[in-house]
Each structure stands twice: as structure tokens, then as C-alpha cells.
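We emphasize that the prediction below concerns an isolated chain of 211 residues; any contacts that depend on oligomerization or on bound cofactors are therefore not represented. The input was used exactly as deposited, without trimming of termini.
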Amino acid sequence: MSFGDPNNPYGPPPQQPPAAPPGAPGYGYPQAPPTVPPQGYGYPQQPGYPGYPAGNMMPQTMPGLMMTARVLLFIVAGVQVLIGIFAIFGAATINDASNAGEDSFGDNGLSDIGHASAGIIFVFALIFLGLAALSITLGVKFTRGGQGIRITTMVYGILGSLFGLLALINAADVGSSASLVFALLWVGFGGVMAAAMIAPSGAAWFNRPRY
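Result of the prediction step, given as a C-alpha cell string:
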């Protein structure tokens, strides 16, 4: 009889593998994945992705040249409103004078010329009032407007400079000092507005992200 024979029923029992220490996984069992603590309150959060370089360069406050252009738009709007109001009063005065002349001297050519002049002046008054509304709208939209406001203001400033240049030439021919000063101011205002929209700071302001 041999105790070394594993098939011998009278031999000693086979030796068992050593027991695993407490907390260690048993032999032959799958390893459990380590638990990850929840990323809740009190745990450091994963840092976010850095912003784009161009986004960090976007201005957060309105540039000085933009603020100047905005103030000039409101000044131009005030002048246009005054011109429109005075033109309406002038057209009404001419129309009343034409009606009085027609009552006194009958229907003649002068009354017809007066009525036509009053109508033309009234149309110019409406044009100036419409331009005043446009100037105010552009100035107000500077804070939230996009490329449409920028392009419209640029074209508006260029056209204003051209109008001022024509007025400057006319004032030089007539020799009127008041008209000359008014034309120079108009050229300067339009030039500043156009330059503010063409400048890189103006393009960056209207391209900034809006939340």
C-alpha cells in the first residue's frame, strides 16, 4: 500500500492550497475593477479645455474709436432732426404764403411755384428725419450688432464724407464761412465713422462672441 498514490482511497487527503489573506481575491475568481470615487462636491474637477487664442484676444469693452463713432452718430442724428423740423416749418410757412397770395392776387404762377417749393422742402425734411432715425438705430446697435451694422455704418460714413466734400466745394465757390465750417465738420464726422469700422479693433468688436 502506498500513500503516494493519489487514487488510493486509504491514503491521506490531498493538500489544499493556502488560504488567501482577508480582503484579497480568491484563487480562480475574476478580479473586480477598482472603484472610482464620485466626482462630487469636495473633489477637484477636471480642468476644462483652454480657449482659442483668437477668442482670448476679443475685446470685452468697446474700443475708444468705436465709442467716438457712436457719439458722433448721435450728434449727427440730433443735427438731422433739427434740420428736418426747421424744414417742415419752412415748408408750412411757404405753403401758407402761397395760399395767402393766391387769395389776394388770384391763381397765378407765383403761387404754383410756392406750392412746388413747399413740397420739395417737405420731402427733404422727411429724408433728414429718416436719416436721423438711421443714425440713432446704428448708434444703439453698436452694443449687440453684428457685421451688418458695421458695414452699414461704414457705408454711411463714406457717403457722409462725400456729401460733406461736395458741400465743402460749394462753400468754397460761394465764399460762405459758416457753410465751410459745417462742411468740414461733416467730412470729419463721416471719416471718423468709416475709419472706426475699417480699423481692426472695429472688426474685432463686431466679431466678438455673444452669449
